[in-house]
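Subject: Protein entry, chain in single-letter code together with its fold tokens

Area: Proteins and the way their chains fold up in space.

Attached in line: The record itself begins immediately under this heading.
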Amino acid sequence: MKNRIVKPLALAVGMAFCSGVWAAPSGSFDIKELDSAKDVCNDFNGFVNAKWLAANPIPADRTRWGSFDALREASLNAQHTIVEKAARDAAKAKPGSIEQKIGYLYASGMDEAAIEKAGFEPIKPELARIAGLKNSSDIAAYISDSYAQGNPVAFRFYGNPDFKDSSKQIAYAGQGGLGLPTADYYSKPDFEKIRTAYVAHIARTLELTGVSSDDAQKQAKAVMALETRLAGASLVPTELRQPENRYHYVSIADANKVTPHFDWTAFFKAQNADVTSGFSLSQPKFFAEFDKMLGDVPVADWQAYLRFHAIDNAAPYLSTPFQQEDFAFNAQTLNGQKEMKSRWKRTLDTVEGGMGMALGQLYVAQTFSPESKQRAQELVTNLRASYKARIEKLEWMSDATKQKALEKWATFTPKIGYPDQWRDWTGLEIQQGNYFANVQTAEKFNYDYMVAKIGKPVDRTEWGMTPQTVNAYYNAQKNEIVFPAAILQPPFFDAKVDDALNYGGIGAVIGHEMGHGYDDQGSKFDAQGNNVNWWTDADRAAFNERTDRLAAQFDSYEALPGKFVNGKLTMGENIGDLGGLNASYDALQMALAKNPAEAKKKIDGYTQEQRFFLNWGRVWRGNIRPEAQLTLLNTDPHAPSQFRAIGAPSNMPAFAQAFQCKAGDKMVRAADRQVKIW
């Protein structure tokens, strides 16, 4: 329940972090926010953002605060108005309408009295079943049945386009089952305190359901030992970025040889999944260890593991003690959050998780105009032209590979604002009251929706992100770039401002997402979205030489004392930023060439080129708690925002020209140290 089923291939420009109670940024650029005490050529991020950051501390119920977060807060407030109205009008709404379902779901989550009265009664049947498990066959059957209810356990299972034939949807099983962020947390000395806190959290969670303190401590140690073994067989995030580590197609018979204690035929039957010829057992080493553990880990230890995760996954939807314990470890210990979010925001998170696209349908009707969509489509068209021109002029790539790159460019599918066709929610039965039951019903409904697509042709019209999400993404297997309505607002986009601000904001985001098609991993997929090599060996070697230098640049950025950015983990996003900002700068120049008067005009004393880079910097303003930063350094493919603000511009001669920077300034890399890829 709490651990959503997610697809692993979407590469996004920003991470989905909630925000505090603040106004969204305005479209115009307020030069009073600039810190003239900072030198733009040596501390560009400070020059653009230091004053704003000092005046906008992180709210107590947040782990970070910046431009993305302020815009997300505006989206949350708009959604809040929508769900509150839906809850008020639910009883008289059209039966079975999305308005009624959203209203009942939200209202049940806001009914604190009923939730407190229920305590942990909703999960007692689940705990009773776990208590009755007697052998490895029972454990395997429980895992299959839990998945069939939409509750993932022990590993990940999902549908996704076939890496080798992107026209069809197949099943994927992948590593999972860990309660800590990555495998490294179970072994590296840096995380010893977090491991200790995790064991204490497990014990406290178990005690909330009546387990004695001594027994809870014993079970917590067993859970930690079991997860440590799973972690030992798991790949780390840098390894998981490699497509070859996310796809391993096998027949069901061969999969059963890897896991003789876990019958995949029985699993797929329980899911009602159309899997007959085979599927991707994506990390065979993990599943081999998982199977050994089914055979040699005591049943009591498996019960402790399943019991804890059943409680932990349900905790956000149970009474206050469970919610507080969940917050204390997952938000406070791991990420430094000071206060729990208010109930309406937590409940809105649930609506987003359970009926996000339905909520998006209501959100778009109230917030996104056809004019905004049309203007955004124009920007996409301009960025496409700019990116094509850059590919055609590449001096390091052969004509043969360049032709394949242009074929991929020609098949890019842009999606703007919201889907052309909305999802049908017929069959989802949301009742008045009973929050936990509603959450579970929505989980199963969405899980069944995902499973039903396995074995069928890929629906290329479907979106992987809701319109109210302040983000964007590229999907390598559909070769699509997607821009939800919520990001098409200031500071990214405003139809009323000068071109420079729009190209430095949403233009660079559009270019960034196009760039993912040509980053270190996206470049391993062709124009149809298949994982095939379309490069000559010499071109790939030339590409790798450039990306290695970009990784080294980001490896040098110190995010916390003694803790540096991982240039390989963040490689795809850094390539996206570099190519996207260059392409958007070129697109701005094309636009200004058509309007010489605007090209020469200064606004608030700044040229169009300067305003372009200033808005890029503004997009990446952000404060973050050190605990959250440490977690993200180990898990997030995005570099910290302050380094995204300076990384790409420091490789662009256009930045130095715009601000008359000199050789030796920190934002001016020597010609032989500048990275130029796309």
About this structure: Confidence is low (pLDDT under 50) at residues 3-25. The chain is about 50% helix and 5% strand.
